[in-house]
Amino acid sequence: MTIVIDSNFFFALKAKNDKNHNRAQEILIELKEKGKDLLITNYLVINETLTLIVARFNANTHYLEKMYELYWGEEIFAKKILMTPAEYLEIYNLLKKYCSPELLLSYVDASILYLFQKYNCNYILSFDRHFDKIAVRLY
User: Fold this and answer.
1) pTM to 2 decimals?
2) How far is CA 54 from CA 51, 59, 65, 84, 99, in A?
3) Counting Cβ atoms within 10 Å, is residue 90 exposed (0-12), middle (13-18) or buried (19+)?
4) In this structure, are residues 7 and 111 in contact, taking their beta carbons and an 8 Å threshold?
5) Where would I find the beta strands (DSSP E) of 61-136?
6) Structural domains of the chain sorted by starting position, each given as residue range(s) with its CATH number in brackets
């Protein structure tokens, strides 16, 4: 099974005051126990998560270090996908296809959908309900 991970899941893992913190911890434990899933994300998600950490925690580097451990340190559990310039154009086209007044997607959301389709993923691991209209979400 392949699962693509959204920034709000990574954020919730380390932000104890996030409303989804406990659920994120539970999901990660479940996934590690199964140990057979391919968990992926991309560098746009990493960018978004680090930006969110800076904004929500007033540039407190303690929280940046916590995220570092998830992406490059001892707590790594997801494979990071580096995309090509051509793939960024495909993401843009997905954004144009799905974005509407009823479905406000960001470019990062479109990149998650791109990975979901390209890698034939089973789930998007996200707490954002807007994915429910176009993919299968694990939450």
Assistant:
1) 0.93
2) 5, 4, 11, 27, 27
3) middle
4) no
5) 79-81, 123-125
6) 2-138 (3.40.50.1010)
- Quick one: tokens of 78? 């997801």
- Written as one letter, the residue type at 62 is H
- 24-69 pLDDT, tens digit each: 999 999 998 887 789 999 999 999 999 999 999 998 999 999 999 9
Look up tokens 């746009």; give the residue.
Answer: 44
> Tokens 């990975």, residue?
115
Q: What are phi and psi of 124, to 5 degrees?
A: -105, 125
Each residue of 71-89: pLDDT tens digit?
Answer: 999 999 999 999 999 999 9
How far is it, in rounded angstroms, from Cα 20 to Cα 5? 14
